[in-house]
Amino acid sequence: MIINLESKGNESTGFLTPIESLYNLPFAIKRIYYIHSIPTQLRRGFHAHLNLKQCLIAINGSCKVLMDYGNDNKKTYELNNKTQGLIIDKMIWHEMYDFCDNCILLALADDYYKESDYVRDYQEFTKLVKK
Q1: Which of 18, 53, 54, 123 could form a Cys-Cys staple with 109, CB 3.0–4.6 A?
Q2: What is the C-alpha R_g of the chain?
Q3: All structural domains of the chain
Q4: How far is residue 90's CA from residue 51's CA, in Å, rounded to a whole number?
């Protein structure tokens, strides 16, 4: 699901785009990180989360995100607008790819890093989805 973030400002003074927990973002933020300097041919992600929800925003440049729901339902999003975020709910396999040279991908997560929340094996993911 894509969410739109309202920017305030104008061309002569610049813009500010607020991101506010539980207001324009549908969850409270506990962790923020960003991915940058990614080789253009590299694919990242290849996992799902048991409980974590996150929002991805290409704050510079662009990339694509494949969202796989584990039931033959897949959707690809192109992130190229710094005022749009892609919500990735729990139990959605995701892969990021086709990064442009200057892409900076911001991630806002609703929990702290926990390796135990990751599902890194695709076969295991599809079994969990079918339960």
Answers
A1: 54
A2: 15
A3: 2-7+20-130 (2.60.120.10)
A4: 5
Tokens of 77: 């999003």
Task: State how far the Cα of 34 lies from the Cα of 105, in Å rounded to an integer.
Answer: 5
Identify the DSSP state of 111.
S
Q: Are 100 and 63 in contact (CB under 8 A)?
A: yes
> What pTM did the predictor assign?
0.92
Catalytic-labelled residue, pool 36, 47, 49, 94: 47
- The two tokens of residue 49 are 């989360």
DSSP H or E segment with residue 109: strand 104-109
Residue 94 a catalytic site member? no
Q: Degrees (nearest 5) of the Cα angle 102, 95, 62?
A: 25
Condensed to tens digits (0 to 9), the pLDDT of residues 30-82 reads: 999 999 999 888 999 999 999 999 999 999 999 999 999 998 889 999 999 99
